[in-house]
Amino acid sequence: MESMIKYGEKHADFVQINLDKKTERSVDLKNNCIDMLQEKKTKFYSAKVWIKGKEGVAYSNKDGLDVVKKAIKIAKMNAKKEYFFGIPEKQTYPKENFSGEFATKDQLIEYAEIMIKETVEDNVLLSGGSVDTEYTESRILNSNGIDAFEKNTSFACSAGLIASHKGKSVSWDNYEEKMNPFDPTTFAKKLKQKTLFYLNAKKMGKIPKTIILKPAVLSQLVDYSFLSNLNGKNVEKHKSMFCGKIGEMVASKEISINDNGILKGGMHSSLFDYEGSARQNTTMIKDGKLKSFVYDYNTAKNNNRDSTGNGDHRDVEFSNICINGKNRKIDEALVIDSIMGAHTGNSLTTEFSVKVEHAHLLNGEPIKGFMISGAVLDVLNNVISIGNAVVQKNHVVSGALATDKIKVIK
Amino acid sequence: MKELKDAKYWEIREQNVNSESFSAWNSHIKSIESQTKQGTSVRVLYGNGWGFAYSYEKDIEKIAKDAMNMAKIMDKKSKIKKEIMPCKAIKAHKKSKFKIDNQDIDISEKRKLVLENSLPLRKKIKNCQASYSEIHRSMLYTNSEGSRIKQDLKSSYILVNATAKSNGKIESFSDRIGVQAGYELTNKFPAVLKTATQKAIAMLDAKLPKAGNMPVICDGALTDVFIHEALGHAAEADHIMQNSSCLKGLIGKKIAPDFVSVYDDASMKGLWGSYFFDDEGVKAQKTSLIKNGILKGFMHSRETASELKAKVTGNARAQSAAHIPQVRMSNTYIEKGPDDFDDMIQNVKKGIFLKGSLGGQVDPTNGNFLFSAQEGFEIKNGKLGNRLKQVAISGNTLQTLSNISMVSNKYEKSFAGHCGKGGQYVPVYGPCPSILISKAKIGGA
């Protein structure tokens, strides 16, 4: 990498080189059995150069100077960027460690066997699943003196169960992900319990006014139909409903939403972003008021502020989205456990219309056969309660959210 | 290779991928990128255990040794017999056809292309993003049966996403085309730009639909997604093997009207989902899934074909050499029918006409699905009315198939899509006609 930077500095005004090396291992499960053991080793260089405000980007997994040469060639033939303020300077990073243990093949096999043991019964089939682990090393060098390195690990269990009884059947799949390997016994038992519970789902009668979105559901709706409005690049380019709304109320006054790139145990935590800016905890919405968007280095400078540490290869990237609010007791509600089709939501207007796969009455019976629709913005402006049992699903870290602003379609 | 001599079956996939992508918004360059990726994987079946190893390093012997060791570990743990369907060895070298080689066109020309097709700010259009990308994939497949297959695939893709704003409302619309072809695709950029910008403005006046059950006409692009989600995934034989398909046990049964026939065909020339050979060295072919309403067959890999005693169909696909082949769709479509499109509209007293797709999802175990349209129109007494947005249809595969009451007599343009399954994405397509579903559940306001 040092020779890449040296070469780049001879031919360009600014240079940034990233290297990501990853080893992934997994054991696949199929039809109640262990099916396959896999291991993959990948490596990826990214070279970014700027020559008189013109940018060139190249990626490769080959060693050598070709990737930098290609980036330089592109920069020379490119047009000047709309604006360019430079690249991050050398800086200090949080004193944290977001790396855990990298599971061995034997551990993966052991945990896979536990998943089978804890889920399979006469009327419960483990149709498919896996136990996966990843170890990543990331390094960045740039021509402003940044030289940063960190390791990250992750471990995940996933399973799809099918339960059947007297001609009825139901399927349920779920996953759990942490930084360190964990015994999946509790995950597997809960999954089986849930699957068997939903075997007796009936069509809905009376619909409670309050709807509770479990963390997995909330995470999908927020991810697909809301978050992009808080991307500073999108705001700058008029691709957000929040343009010009800093300081305005955009959610219930009890709601605060942070992008926390240094959250302990966060699945998207790291020391620095792809540009070498230190990750941080950015308050985007505080007590319902819009405070900030998230930015990469240049978009931030163009908006007269510093990077929020959310730079990615080519865009702004969210880290751990923490949604906080008041917890209140709820007596009657419809609890939505899983949905289908969240990715079809409207990321600009935040409107969505999805099918509910699994739901139940609070402290009551499982229900089936309906859709829900609404707008995430309306939901966040009408939050009745946020649960204390905080869970991370994808980017979102939150308890279950209760609202009365969702329409149920039978 | 001595590392693999005791294997029941092995295959080696070596891949080189070169791609370039160009993106501009509001007449400013957003990004220009080049990507080069190479890698090799080995998949081994030893006894009854599968092992898979991939590396960016060129040491094939080491990768093979790792895969073999993992297969041996799995064999000791295996509780069921594993076989794959043997096939004749094939030696072939196939290349995508194109008129203009993208690699002959200068970077500055491509830069100019996206700049010209991403409009500056104007009246109601607040953002207009144009993207062009080209991918050149060179893959060498060898296996223990003696096959040696080289494929050089070239694909091109253009997309425009426009955002319109007026009177406090904001909406966006995308149009895109992807094909296995060369730079000649870019001739279609102006038409794609026009569609995206005109529709983004039109969507500002669109209303949310009234929820409920009603007749629905789906245009070709939405029918493509319907048949992909509602039928296609359930017809992937790995779902049958894993008891997670609502079509299990229904071969030979009538599941749709007589005038409905559905195929998957990776051999269709130049389409987004096409290829010459799948990732197990099986030739791409046309597979009949439904013929005149009867369920005829499933899509197979070698393993599912062996297990279910069926013919291989060339549907084992992997996102890249770093991924294991899975049973996947390619170009999946309903055969055009007998009906005139105008007659279909006139047939509906109160319903919806839906166009374009925002994607969909299915649980193939029970056949429950949801897919969403880019835009819709009310139909009242056989005439198109108000424009609609955010229209989602949900239903059940078998019920909805039997509710297809008309199929139009023309194939329509669909969207170049990517299908996600098991953490992998592969390009898929489906040139379908419009269909009338006599009753479907619409989600809305």
Question: Features of this protein?
Answer:
heterodimer; A: 410 residues; alpha+beta; nine-stranded mixed β-sheet; six-stranded antiparallel β-sheet; B: 445 residues; 8 helices; 18% helix; globular
Describe this structure in words.
With 410 residues, chain A is α+β, with helices and mostly antiparallel strands. Chain A is built from 8 helices and 21 strands. Chain A has helices at 2-11, 66-77, 105-119, 185-197, 215-225, 232-236, 297-302, 376-380; strands spanning 14-30, 33-51, 54-60, 124-142, 147-165, 168-178, 202-203, 211-213, 256-260, 281-286, 289-290, 321-324, 334-340, 351-361, 366-368, 370-375, 383-386, 391-393, 396-398, 401-403, 407-409. In chain A, α1 packs parallel to α2 and α3 (105-119) runs parallel beside α4. The termini of chain A are far apart. In chain B, strands 8, 15, 16, 17, 18, 19, 20, 21 and 24 form a 9-stranded mixed sheet that branches. In chain B, strands 1, 2, 3, 4, 5, 6 and 7 form a 7-stranded mixed sheet that branches. Chain B has a 4-stranded antiparallel sheet with strand order 11-10-9-14, with helices on one face. Chain B is globular. Chain B starts with 8 loop residues before the first strand and ends with a strand. At the A-B interface, β2, β3, α2, α3 and β4 of A face β2, β3, α1, α2 and β5 of B.
